[in-house]
Amino acid sequence: MWKSVLLALIAGLLFVLSWPTNGFPLLVFFAFIPLLLIERQFSEAEFGKKGLKIFGLSLFTFLIFNALTYSWLSHAHPETDATLSELQQAWFAYLFAVIVNSLLMSLAFLFFHKIRLKFGNFLGYAFLPMIWIFLEKLHLNWDFAWPWLNLGNAFASFHKWVQWYSVTGALGGTLWVILVNEFLFLGINSFLEHQKAWGKKMLILGIFTMLLPIGGSYIMYNNYVEKSEQSVEVVLLQPKLDPYREKYQLSGDQILMDLLNLAQKGITDSTQFVIVPETAFPGLDNVVLNDVESDYYIQRIKEFVRYHPQVNFISGMDAVKFFNQEEMPNPTAIEMKNGGWLNHYNAVAQLNTKDSVQTYFKSKLVVGVELFPYMSVLKPLLGDAMLDFGGSVNSLTTQEERSVFSNTLNNGKVAPLVCYESIFGEFVSEFVKNGANFISVSTNDSWWGNTQGHKQFLEYAKLRAIENRRDVVRAANSGISAFINQRGDIVKSLPYDEKGFLRGEVHLNSELTPYTKSGDVVGRIALILAGVMTAFYFMSLILKKKN
Question: What is the pTM of this model?
């Protein structure tokens, strides 16, 4: 048993040591092998409760993977003088993510074990990548979305290995990882069972499957020419506001004045876009969307751009909209004490001297902070508990359309992503499909201090650049603000915890990649095949019970 525990420990550490930004992703091609050895050995053993033991050992592996890879979540509190309540909130969010995600991964692995026992090795090992991609697809789309550890993300720091994500997306990386693990495992297991000829073939197949996509990717990388129908000068602002003690406690006037002063330093006569972080203003206040053109803070920015008539000013902002009616206007509306309703938005706006104000509302929300999951079911059960742990019993309001900001000053068409949205591949591709010729990410990565959190966030944005072959710009509250080219290279960046601006050229590209056109085809095929095999599995159980 201790040998199995050691194998589970090794698997967990291999996952951790393969992850961005300090890891080496080659290790992820070996991380499933110890678990597959455990599963095979336990399946052939004579003792009972095999499934429970396999579940327990895989849970041990995935707890290590989750707990160590995003331990930075536990730092979501002020760096100094954090209250007990703030520490509890951070640790609750961290442990909730670790436990739930580890359980889901373990259940997926257990289900693979059941399928293999029922249908044999060929269908069983074919099912593992299907069920894993199903889990990752689930994490990209449900209310508890948390795709941070989707296996395709492992190559974010080694983006030269995965230039073919422009065809498959990051889910293609997941398929690649699991297939290589299975081929290598089958080779090792064949040697253990003294089937050396077959073992050698499987090891060669595994190594070939590992190296061929890397080699092909380097060829794609070296031969890719940046597409540029036009280039525009962009200035990114990094105001460096403490999200706990400054950003949401200072007056809107003070925050906006600092932002505009910073923009003034960065703008040249050639600047065509100024891009500002998530919820950059107005501090304690909100922008009112009922008559957004007349809002006080919007008027302040309009006054600023009159002195820079060539500039599009794109900024994140806190916004509200009021509804003077008796009936609830939408599921996320909040009833006000004096009657009527309001919606809260994590919004982005584009302003210039010629066009009407354009807005976009963040639509991939952080569970517990911006989103109450499955509100109609869980709110009656968990409302008070969520409040006790610092969560929200309400949700921000989102939108269905993936809006693209266009303008009459230049040909730039911007995908105005907000923070968390930048880790959702197919979601981002919808903006590009709607006409975006470059991608902007307004983000606030300061919640976790100087940890791996903001570094991993930056690396993941490189994958969106490759998938869509679009320049990506990131305006981050405290960093890391950066320009990323269409191959996923970070062209220039502003270090974390440094106040300032970053100026650079962005290349506009309107060509669509196969991934942009088709989205997560790998995911859809996996869902269909996993669904068919799952249906056959349960049908066989029902028939067996009847007989």
Answer: 0.92
